[in-house]
Design brief:
148 residues; alpha/beta; Rossmann fold; 5-stranded parallel sheet; 5 helices; 5 strands; 51% helix; 20% strand; globular
């Protein structure tokens, strides 16, 4: 199965800890920069503004943040693009919050401190999933255009 895509994916990192945003951005750019473009914000309002103006394929967000938690960001992102894949990172959370995140459409979650290899593995899986979906949609459109 072909997993190449026509464009790089847009990934938004949201965490109230600026050092976490920098760390995640550096790891992702170093390991997956040829496939993923990374944007980062430390403020929920800035993240929502970015989501309003851009296509977000992948979202990595802290689950617990002041002034607008990760669940709010997830719901906002999914309203803008139902296909956005959301991965939560958290140092501590309750089972109820994690369950709620999955119910609202989170794809995965990672515990802090982030294991870099695990992060890259999860993002690689998400990239392959997005590529498969994009290829399926393109194939469906091409079949429709050719009269199948």
């Amino acid at each position: 199965m072909q997993t190449s895509m026509a464009r790089k994916l847009n990934l938004l990192v949201v965490d109230d800890d600026a050092s976490m945003v920098r760390l995640l951005t550096q790891v992702i750019e170093r390991q997956l920069g040829e496939r993923i473009t990374v944007f980062g914000h430390t403020d929920s309002d800035q993240a929502r503004r970015w989501l309003e103006e851009n296509c977000c394929d992948l979202l990595i967000s802290d689950l617990e943040m002041p002034g607008g938690g990760g669940l709010e960001i997830l719901r906002f992102a999914k309203r803008r693009n139902a296909w956005t894949q959301v991965i939560f990172v958290t140092a501590h959370s309750t089972w109820d919050k994690i369950t709620e995140a999955i119910e609202y459409g989170a794809s995965d979650y990672l515990l802090k401190p982030i294991d870099h290899e695990e992060l890259v593995a999860v993002l690689t899986q998400q990239y392959v999933r997005c590529a498969r979906w994009q290829n399926a949609v393109l194939g469906t459109l091409q079949s429709a255009e050719s009269g199948w």
